[in-house]
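To assess whether the prediction recovers the assembly geometry, we first specified each molecular entity separately, as shown.
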Amino acid sequence: MLLFNQLQTYLFLALVLFVIGLYGVLARRSLIAILISVELILNAASINFMAFNRFLAPHPAVGQVITLFIMAVAAAEAAIALSIIVAVYRKMRSINVEHATELRG
Amino acid sequence: MVFSDPILLGCLLTVFLPLSAFALIMIFTRDNHKLSLAISLVASTIPLIIAWTFFFKLGGRAPIIYNFDWLVSDIVKVPFGFLLDPTSLVMLVIVASISWLVQVYSIGYMAGDQGFGRYYADLSLFALAMLTLVISSGLLQLYIAWELVGLASYLLIGFWYEKFSASEAGKKAFVVTRFGDIGFFIGLVFLVIFYGNLDIATVNAAAVSKSMPPWLLTASGLLIFCGVMGKSAQFPLHVWLPDAMEGPTPVSALLHSATMVAAGVYLMTRIFPFFAASATTMTVILVISTITLILSSTIALVATDIKQVWAYSTVSQLGFMAMGLAAAALASGTLFAGYYHLTTHAAFKALLFLCSGVFIHHYGTNDFFSMATQGGRKLLIPMACITIAALALAGIFPFAGFFSKELILTTLAHLDNKLWLVLGLFGAFLTAYYSFRVIFVMLFPKAPEAYLKVPGHIPHVEDEAHGHGAHGHDDDAHGHGHDEHHGVPWVMVFPLLVLASFTLILGFCQGYLEKLLLGASHPHAMNYFLLVAAVGCALSGIAMAWLDWGRKDAKCVGFISKFPALQTFFIQKWYMDHFWRWFLNRFIYGIFSKWFTYNDRRVVDGGVDAVAFSTVGSGRLLSFIQTAFLQYNLLFMVLVLAGVGIYLMMGR
Amino acid sequence: MNAVSAWLTPQTAATAAFVMVIGLTIVGALIAVGARNIFHNVLGLCVSLFGVSGIFLFLNSPFVALMEILIYIGAICVAICFAIMLSEPMYLPPPPRNKVKVLGAAIGAGGIFVFLGLLLKKTQWTAAPERSTDWSVTTIGHYFLTNYALIFELVSLLLLVAMIGAIVTARGGRSKP
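The predicted structure of the complete assembly is given in tokenized form:
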């Protein structure tokens, strides 16, 4: 059984990518770095969809369609996130999430 | 259904005409005195006609019951409706007649008063409540009417509410009677819970057939008697009735002597079999009513306010009625004696009050010594009527009181313990004495100086601009015009004559009434010893009064002044007001009020405050979680998710 | 030579290529998350995304792989570069690492890793009984305009809203012209 012909390989790869992204979201302080980590998580999800599409799905076009949707949503998300980052930087002169403490209780 | 049945229609009219009169006057015509009067008179005349028609048409027949189930469940049944049997018919006639007569009388008495419309509205409210009370078929309906009567009484006692003492007296009457009504209500609750039916006929039948547990009979009987105690002014809840004389005199005649206060005794007659089934209850009632009789008779000995005298006399006569009923129950007699005394008492006591009202109206004072010195006997018809009524009250043949008192004394004589009979005779003696004290002072006035020694008497001051002690309208200009005998209005004299004739007739209706109430007349053997004893007591009381007050060289001090301590005791009304004041301060204000205040401050307010503070505090606490470090929040979520996820995975 | 040619079969070559692609993906992701310099992060993301597109190639989807490169690297990474230029200056020294935070993040991510790993291990994946072999782009386009037309429209709406929102947010409010 070849390595690249197994579903498990891809799912494990996606898992690793997701966990790395999750670590980034939890640990990084720069908003841009968090955004980058979120992109990694989205890619992990895409890989999962493509893998299921390749190995399990009854029709192999569906997974690709969903992956393309994910890309579109990621693009929208990135646009919004980046504009928010710019606005936040303009307001706080920083993009460190730990500095965004206005709503502290 | 309603229109095809004239009896039901009559009942409904009797109840709803006064109600609509009350509503109409209160809402629309309060400021139009003539229109208000017309409405009220129409709404009391039609029930009067209906009542007399019922009395003659339905008197001899079996009870007619209309029941409309208002609240039915598997164990509880609360009917609303009408019950027309001889007992309620007699009371219906009494209430409707005296109510109508008082309304006519008030045309003269209340003329020119600011609150004329309001007065007639309140009288209509009273008529509604009292008529409903009389013909209601269930105890809950009776209780509702009972409370409404209390409301009407409160409104009418405090009718001149600008006067502080009047509004205070209204409050006192309301609160004290409510005090007894708590017991009444709890008694009803007992009945509902443990018997499940409040229909009067059913309850009576159950008590007769012994299908109720004895403890329930005693407990709820005693509790219901608490209500009677409040309403019929029995010891120790009698204190409100003398104060209630602050109201207009016609009101005193209608509510506080003839009908409303008799409602308590009426309730006892109404469920007489129920009460009679428990000897314990009846013994308690006998004791309390005897105490009431003696207590109020002795206080009446020393009162100087004419209305106070009649008020205490009312209290004592109510006690006498209750004694008659209780003794009848204990000696397995019938309710007739007590109820018959209620009937005759309604006539002569209303007459006494209405006559006194004429004097009060004429002379502007409540003090009968002042009336006498101003020439009260010159008002011939009222003087004659008040004498007739006093003779009836004292129990002199051939006036109504003689027959009914005789009957009650006979009933008392049936008891094994003759102490009650002796006390009853003593009460009769005192009654004759105090009523003729008033009559002789009025009939044979001495010089004003002669009365200066009488404790409590406030000498009449001529230039005191007709001090209207009793009623506050300043527009009748005959305050001290005792030389210009310009007569008493016809509308005031007419009711006096009607009531006086009743006082004369009623005594001879004994056989008829007995047949009506009991189904058959029981001619009992005349106890001549008792007859002599009773009349002897009454006559000796009158003679005593003649010696003390009537004869030319009378000393004008009561025999009671030989015992100064006793006299003070009576003047201070047996210190009952002091007792209640002490009781209120010590227990109500000192304990309950304090606890409730504490409860209110600490538990209720404190509870609300605690909720508020805990909300704020927990908000403060929770806000510590809002550290503004988003990633910690996220980390927490992730950790929980991971923990839950791993836990679930381990299980598989 | 024979041994070498025997060893160098297409399968082996493909496997080697696959391992390389995986390596690109993971190393790129590690750089994207771990590097202290924000610009290195973006470059790492680019590398990782290249790897992902290679994986898509292995998963029989050259079109999606191409779109991955086009959209992610060509659009999103470039947009992130712009954001970096518009925000914090690069010469400022990055703040020191917060040990507690790193540790917590590691534990959280590790927990999720364990959870999903267990899930992965314990699940029996069963393929659909009948599987189509139609992988063409035509079919994807057909799906877009038939079965998924509503989602397609919604995504276009989403993009429009995102565009407007981005402009409004980044413009700096009404007060500034």
